[in-house]
Design goal:
Layout (H helix, E strand, L loop, with lengths): L1 E2 L9 E2 H5 L3 E3 L7 E3 L7 H9 L5 E3 L5 E3 L9 H5 L6 E3 L7 E3 L4
Antiparallel strand pairs: 1-2, 3-8, 4-7, 5-6
The protein binds iron/sulfur cluster (SF4).
The site of iron/sulfur cluster has 13 residues, from helix 3.
Length: 104
């Protein structure tokens, strides 16, 4: 996926290249996002696999939705999508951990 330039010209940089500019300090063993136990994923959980901009969500071989939030940008998209279903637990990382944005 390419990022659109601000002046409407052709994309100049891929999203993946922009994401690479971010830095993450992972709080090992204390993930700030968890998927609640489920037998089958709800539609909301399945949606997260496609909408998380950092690709944190995936579907396991058992058909369950999993999250590895190491590259989470703390955008809150997954919180909004699951606000009513309550499929995930989401907290900000502890102080000093999580994402650092190079460009603000
Ligand atoms: Fe992905 Fe954003 Fe949720 Fe982090 S907050 S897991 S980047 S959707």
């Amino acid at each position: 996926m390419n990022a659109k330039s601000t002046n409407g010209t052709e994309p100049t940089q891929k999203i993946e290249e922009k994401l690479y500019q971010n830095r993450y300090l992972v709080d090992s063993g204390r993930p700030h996002v968890r998927v609640k136990e489920h037998l089958e994923p709800t539609p909301e959980l399945k949606t997260l696999v496609n909408v998380c901009p950092a690709g944190c969500y995936s579907i396991s071989e058992q058909g369950k939705v999993e999250v590895v939030p190491d590259g989470c940008m703390e955008c809150g998209t997954c919180r909004i999508i699951t606000a009513e279903s309550g499929d995930i637990e989401w907290n900000y990382p502890r102080g000093g951990y999580g994402v650092s944005f190079k460009f603000g």
